[in-house]
C-alpha cells in the first residue's frame, strides 16, 4: 500500500493497519513511516482525529 492510499483511508482502518505493522514488522514509528514514505507528523495528525497518540514504550498508537 502506498502512502497516498494509507492517508486517504478512514482513521480507524489506518489505526488497525499501523498498529499491526508496529507489532509485527517495525520497531519504531520512524521505521514505520519510512516504510510508507510519509512523515511521522502526517500519521500522528491522522490518528489524533480519533483520539490516538503514539506511545514509544509500547510501540503502538493508544487512546489518550
Automatic annotation (TrEMBL):
InterPro entries in the cross-refs: DUF4250
- Put simply, this protein is called DUF4250 domain-containing protein
Q: Which organism is it from?
A: Alginatibacterium sediminis
